[in-house]
Structures are given as structure tokens and as C-alpha cells.
Amino acid sequence: MLDPQQHLQQLREAIDNTDSELVQILLKRRQLAAEVGVVKRQLGQPLYVPEREASMLVAKRKQAEQAGLSPDLIEDVLRRIIRESYQQQQAADVHLNDKTVVIVGGNGALGQLFVRLFSSAGAKVLILDKDDWQHAEHFCEQADLVLISVPIAHTLTVIEALPSLPPGCILADLTSVKRQPLNAMLAKHSGPVVGLHPMFGPKQVTLAKQLVVACHGRDEDQYQWLLASIERWGAHIKALTAAAHDQAMAFVQVLRHLSSFVYGSHLAAEQADLQQLLDLSSPIYRLELMMVGRLFAQDAELYADILLAEPNNIAMLRRYVQRFEMELKRLEQGCKDEFLQEFTRVREYFGEFAERFLSDSQRLLDTAGDSHQIS
Amino acid sequence: MLDPQQHLQQLREAIDNTDSELVQILLKRRQLAAEVGVVKRQLGQPLYVPEREASMLVAKRKQAEQAGLSPDLIEDVLRRIIRESYQQQQAADVHLNDKTVVIVGGNGALGQLFVRLFSSAGAKVLILDKDDWQHAEHFCEQADLVLISVPIAHTLTVIEALPSLPPGCILADLTSVKRQPLNAMLAKHSGPVVGLHPMFGPKQVTLAKQLVVACHGRDEDQYQWLLASIERWGAHIKALTAAAHDQAMAFVQVLRHLSSFVYGSHLAAEQADLQQLLDLSSPIYRLELMMVGRLFAQDAELYADILLAEPNNIAMLRRYVQRFEMELKRLEQGCKDEFLQEFTRVREYFGEFAERFLSDSQRLLDTAGDSHQIS
């Protein structure tokens, strides 16, 4: 029999060889996926077809199970590989070479992303920034689309300052609030108008699987080509009224940001030892801490503007603080029964979402655990 | 030249073949990892060696890069495969066959996990529950370890109700607060005492990479075998005073839970349309929503007990609410400059953690995006 130490060495070499085979397979698969991208463009097919991806994964899970391998393992590995494939397939897809697009704020982070997208689609892209406003009239008179991508606080001023646009030109914006900019655009321009909110950050490499909210302004038929391009880049479009959008964003954006901001500010004021907290964090607390801390690595102005944009939100935020105080009083008085009753009410409100969120987040926490570096 | 539709079909078949090869490689790697587990046990080596895993990943990243493959891709895929390996290596590792372990509350969720761990290590495990307390004396007089795993609200009562233990027997608990249970255990038993807080849920399959906090009570030498077993199962042990533990937990556990609870309660009271919020959520908001909703799929009693356990926390929570109100007033008055100043202060407090949290969470959000099902 082998000496265990030698045996271990042999096994590790065998694992290394297997991993080299793995690298080769991933390379081959990437090459094939890139070719699929080329053919799909020839056929004018979209990059991302949810049903096809889902049915493919079901088949692979079954295959893995029959081979005695964990279906979750093959699904997670394939999903990760597929993400890489989408990025590969993101090569030039020229379909807008008859369009001229003016991007106001095209040097900003999100502006640059859309400059890249429209350019690679063959459109003539003109960037208008605060330093070269003298070109505004000349640029806009040839535009098929004027896209506003400036900080929230400047959006209304910039829209008002625009020269008049050709009647068929689309006026659109990318602001993360929608009611006020949409009204301003409708007042400015009598042609096609649509408000867009890309629900992703400027660092996004591919639009595949991403969401863009579209708030109808005027002349839907005439801005269809813009929405079609966004879908062609892989994103999903959700149509919504500006009012419904802003109301939902008050919960998912304003309240979450404010809550994270105050939590960070509180930790700082209480002089909590961050390294200690991190050392003591299980994956879930680590994740919660990350979600707070990441805010402070980002653009302070952007957060300030989002929080200040809509004075109507204040009343809702005030009700949140009142509820927080009420719960705190309950805790102080040790009212466990009342806490349990409220817990039950909220559980009923979440319904089947609660279980779904638990299992979805567990999957994600497992991934977070994979890369947990013990400090 | 091929008809594009036929070409697409051929490429998809080629991808299917590649995926079948992938399944075979994953199977082979799993088999090798299982053998490594067997040999490691022969050698008495720990399951998880952080340095070895890290240096292996550095080597694989380099190899991928030389082959023209994304290093992040191979790292993510390997980390996911390695998680599976740890579960494989978790087979019987008999090293406690001379020990008798009494687990009080061994039928509870976390209790069952430790029953399984100690049993598979060869220990004689006796479960003591509220229904069979008549066995308490008989069980405890033969015990090498009495481990308390009951709901927080009952921990102190259960400790007081214990019969007297043999002088060398370890008394330990798994409660997620530590100061009061540790004091109660020290008062009860004059032999070795240690307070433990496993920083993971009862659904954990393997302890590899998990964290257990240990709060010293008495006779460290005599409870070393317990800590050694926990490390042998793959967990990392962090020694901390009970006071420091409870203070840190007030931030990472109590405040986060309360904050998520109030947020859920607020959404319910405001009758926010959950499906709408979910439809509108980018990966990061989806994640934030999941972190809140998952709470309500879990044990209400446990949350109530955690929030109510330590009356000392109320003052800190009250300061949090006051800070929230202060920020809200600033927003109401449109004080953007003050907001930006506070943002800068908190950013300085987070220091390099902010950037680290941003990039770590981005990686996780990318994974969340992989499985985003557009509804």
C-alpha cells in the first residue's frame, strides 16, 4: 500500500490534471458560444432567450442527476459559464447605421455606456456636454434621438436648455426618477418622448438579463426602434407609468439608500470596530455589512440627488421612522406577544415570497461562503 | 456555406457535447476529492486549509490567463466545485469514541446538527429534552460534555435546572447571546465552562469555512478537545469575551434584524405591491428585498428572543432612530451640503472597507444576475 503522504501527492496531481482539462473545456465552450453569437446576428435573433436558457438548464440538471452528480452544482457552474458567453456574444451588431444619436452627458459614467452601445450598433453618436453647449443647435437639428444622461439635479435645467428638435426626433432620458423629467420633456418637445430608467449601474458589461423601465410620453410608434435596440442588446423592457415607477422607487431605492446611509453613519458615530464586526460575521451578516459599506465607495452626489429628488417621499419616510419607534417601545416594554402578532401579519403580507426569498438568498449566501476568507 | 439555421443547430449540439464532457470531469474531480478526504483523515489533517486553497486558486487563475480564459471565471467555477468537495469529504471521522455527550435540546434544529456531528465522530450522544427531564441526572452523571441548545428565552432556566455534573465534565451552550448564559453556567458548574456561538444556521451541511465564537469560562485546558473537534469539522474558532461578543452582535444581529423587521412591517402597512417591486428590481434591490423577506420565512420566536434578550441594547437602538430622524430633517430642509459632509465622514470611517465591500458585493451581484428570472 502507498504511503499516505505520497498518495495525497498523487491525488493532488490528478486533481491538477482534471483542472487543466476543465480549462480546455471552458475555452472550447466559449469559442462555440462566440460562434452562436455570430449566427444569431445573421438570423436577427435576440442574444438572450429566457425560455431556451431555462429548458437547457433543466436538461443538464437531469443529465447530471443520472450521472450521479449534484444538479445544483451543474446548474451553478453552467450559469456562471453562460454569463461569460453573453459577454463574448456582445460583439458588433450593426443595425442603426441610418441613425444619428445625440447623448447629452455622454462623458458621464452611464453616458459612456450608451455611447459605446449606440456606436457599436453603427449609429452616428454625438456627445454634448456642458463645455461644448455651443454645438447644441447644430447637433440636435440632425438627431433621430436626443438622450439625456446627466445628474438628476441638472436634468430639468438641461431639458429646458435644449434647442428645438426635428419633429420626428425622439427625446428620452435615463434619470432614475421619472415624473418630473418626463413632464419637462413633454413640455419641451412636441414629437416622440419616452422616459427610460436602466435598472443597472454603468459598470455593466452586457445588457443581457438587465431591466429597463420605459415610461410612455408621446408617439409610441415613433420611438419603437429605440426600445427594439435595447431589447436586441439583451435587456428586458418594462412599461410603467411615471407615477407608479416613482412610487415603487421610493421603497426600493430611496428608503433602502437612506436606511443604509443612516446605518453606516450610526456605526461611525458609535465607533464600532469594523474589523471586529467582520471577523464575527457569518455570510449573511457579512453580506448585510457589505450592502451598507458599498454605498460609501460610490458617488455621494448621486445618492444625495436620489434622496432629495422627490419631496413627496418625506411623508412616507416619516411613517417608517414612526414604525421604528413603535417597535422599539414594544421591545423596551418586553411586549413579545405584540411582536409575534406583527411578525405574523407581515409574514402573511409576504406570502409565498418569504419562502422564495429564503431559498434564493440561501443559494447566494452559499456562493458568498465559497469565497469567505477567514481573517 | 452552411444555412445559418443548420449551423446554429450544429453549434448547439457541439455545446451539448462539451457540457457532457464537463459533467464527466466534475464527476472525476469529485471522486478524487473524496479520496483526498480519506487520506487526510489517515494523516489527521484538517479538512480546510485556507492557505492551500488560496495558493491553488492563484495557480489556476494564472493557468487560465495563459490559456486566454478569464481568471475570474475559473476561480468562480472552482470555488463552486470545491464547496461540493467539502461536502464529499464530510464522511465519518471517528475520533470521539471515548466521549459521552449530552445535548440538551437535541431535537431542535441546531441541536440535531450537533447530534449528527458528535454521532458521526463516534461519541455516545444522549438527547435530553423537556419531555424526558427525568433522565437528566442519569444522563449527566456519565457526561464528558453537556451542551445546551435550547431557545434563548429558556437558556437560563434550563441551565439552573441541570443536576450537578462530574467535575471534569464540560458545560457549554450554543446561544446567540453570551454574557448571561456564560454567567449562569459558571454559577451552576465548578468544572470547565465555555460559551459557544456558531455563526451559521442549522441548515449548514458542512462546517468547512464556518465560524464559531468561543467565550472562555473556566479551565481552558479541559475543554480543548471540544474546540479541537469543531476545528476538525472545518470551522474556524474565534476567541472573544462575552461582553465584546454581545456588543458586536448588537450591531450585526440586533440592529439588522430590527431594521429588516420594521422595513417589512412598513411595506405591509403601506400596502406596497411586492410583485411590482420585484419586477422593478435590479439585482441589488432584489437582494435587499430578499434579505428582508427571508426573515419572515423563519422562526418568529427566535427573532423575538434575540431582540428582547439584552435590555442594554435599547439605548443604542434609540440613538439609531434619532440619527434617522436627523437625516430625515436634513432631507426635508434640502440640506444637500450637510448630507455630503456626513457622507464624507462615514466614508472615512469605512476607509478601505468601502471599496472592498463594493467589489466583493459586485461579484455576488453578478452571481445573483446569473439566475435572474425575468417575470
Automatic annotation (TrEMBL), chains A, B:
Metabolic or biological pathway: Amino-acid biosynthesis; L-tyrosine biosynthesis; (4-hydroxyphenyl)pyruvate from prephenate (NAD(+) route): step 1/1; Metabolic intermediate biosynthesis; prephenate biosynthesis; prephenate from chorismate: step 1/1
Annotated localization: Cytoplasm
GO biological process: chorismate metabolic process; tyrosine biosynthetic process
Domain Prephenate/arogenate dehydrogenase: 99-361
Signal peptide limits: none
UniProt KW keywords: Amino-acid biosynthesis, Aromatic amino acid biosynthesis, Cytoplasm, Isomerase, NAD, Oxidoreductase, Tyrosine biosynthesis
Cellular-component GO terms for this entry: cytoplasm
One GO MF term attached to the UniProt entry: prephenate dehydrogenase (NADP+) activity
All copies of domain Chorismate mutase, residue ranges: 2-93
PANTHER family in UniProt: PREPHENATE DEHYDROGENASE, PREPHENATE DEHYDROGENASE [NADP(+)]
Name this polypeptide is given: T-protein
Native organism: Pseudidiomarina maritima
